[in-house]
Amino acid sequence: MAAWLFASVDSISDPAGFGEYQHLAGDSLEKFGGKFLGGGGNIEVMDGDWVS
């Protein structure tokens, strides 16, 4: 079954903790054949409005 997850993080109070979370989340994705398709940088809205 395919699934997509889109997330917008406005602020990070613990950058080191968030880095560890990203590492662990990536390992979980790989375990089940998933992968990150993108991350970071500026978002360009192509259609509609992005509300965060």
Entry summary:
The chain is mainly alpha-helical and 52 residues long. 33% of the residues lie in helices and 0% in strands. The protein is built from 1 helix and no strands.
What does this structure look like?
- By secondary structure, this protein is mainly α.
- Helix content is 33%, strand content 0%.
- It contains one helix and no strands.
- The N and C termini lie far apart (27 Å).
User: Mind summarizing the main beta sheet?
Assistant: none
Q: What's the pLDDT, averaged over the residues?
A: 82
The rough form would be described as flat
Give the distance, in angstroms, between the N- and C-terminal Cα atoms. 27 Å
Q: Provide the helix percentage.
A: 25-40%
- Number of E-state strands: 0
The assigned structural class equals mainly alpha
Return residue spans where pLDDT drops below 50 for at least 5 consecutive residues: none
**What is the succession of H and E elements?**
H
Strand content: under 5%
**Total helical segments:** 1
Gyration radius from CA atoms, angstroms: 13 Å
